[in-house]
Amino acid sequence: MPENIILIGFMGTGKSTIGRQLSLSLGYPLIDTDHLIEERAGKSIPEIFAQEGEDAFRDTETNTLRSLAESTNHIISTGGGIIGRAENREILQELGYVVWLVASPEEILARTSRNSNRPLLNNQDPAGTIRKLLTQRMPLYEAASHLAIETDQLSFDEVVTGIVESARYHYSQTDEEE
To answer: For the chain, which end, N or C, has fewer CB atoms within 10 Å of the first or last residue's CB respectively?
Structure first.
């Protein structure tokens, strides 16, 4: 198994839930970068966005990711926009096996509409925002990941099993090449 399994993807794709399931399945502790940021800042992400702006939040996100460089045998669940910076994509690759959880814009809207804690979607056209951000971020998610899994039609157990088996296979191939 890889040293860490890192989950990336748009908000509402299941990173937190799948992260918890992987943690239980593998016995690896879960690190949720959004929760870590909130804990360190002493305020919620919407508060950080409102008080300091998105750029300050993204700086904090990068610093938080850097602080995980020595982490091993963890499941790391990240925020949806963490792939926006090239530096972050490099750090993610260095941390371990990166899995991109994919969902359709309709599924994302359905999942995120139940939660008002999404600063980027607090506007008149959340569906349009989702489509626009997905279009911008899809090539970045793809560049940062070892594996993409579409989550719309899969159960959590199916996603977890797919990730574990793919990670084992990936690392068995890597070991054979060395």
So the answer is: C
